[in-house]
């Protein structure tokens, strides 16, 4: 009997956001997720139901970190949108990857 090797499709983790200026902000999903988690802990954010409640200081810190990553002119509002998008995308990528592993 021949065994067929199953392939695992990997995702790059590349994210691209289009900023209000029209400029693109390219980043890596895992890097952004790890930065967010680190700041969530540092700012002692609390979970309310299924969501983590952001604070003003958290969003200001995140905006600063995102500027360092290349998100020019990042504001707390932009940071909040990127925080939510990165969290959702990370969950999606993780779920899809684990589903593939279960099929092996």
SSE diagram, text form:
Elements: E1 14-18, E2 24-28, H1 29-42, E3 47-48, E4 51-52, H2 56-69, H3 76-102
Antiparallel strand pairs: 1-2, 3-4
Helix pairs in contact: 1-2, 1-3, 2-3
For this entry, give a set of tags.
two-stranded antiparallel sheet; two-stranded antiparallel ribbon; 3 helices; 4 strands
Description:
- With 104 residues, this protein is an alpha+beta fold.
- Helices cover 53% and strands 13% of the residues.
- The strands form two sheets. It has a two-stranded antiparallel sheet with strand order 1-2. A two-stranded antiparallel ribbon has the order 3-4.
- A hairpin with a 5-residue loop joins β1 (14-18) and β2 (24-28).
- α1 (29-42) packs across α3 (76-102) and α2 (56-69) packs across α3 (76-102).
> What separation lies between the terminal Cα atoms?
17 Å
Q: Low-confidence spans: pLDDT under 50, at least 5 residues?
A: none
- Tell me the β content: 5-15%
Number of helices: 3
Shape: globular
Mean pLDDT: 94
Largest sheet: 2 strands, antiparallel
Number of beta strands: 4
Gyration radius, in Å: 17 Å
The portion of residues assigned to helices is 40-55%
Strand order of the largest sheet: 1-2
Give me the secondary-structure category.
Answer: alpha+beta
Helix-strand sequence = EEHEEHH
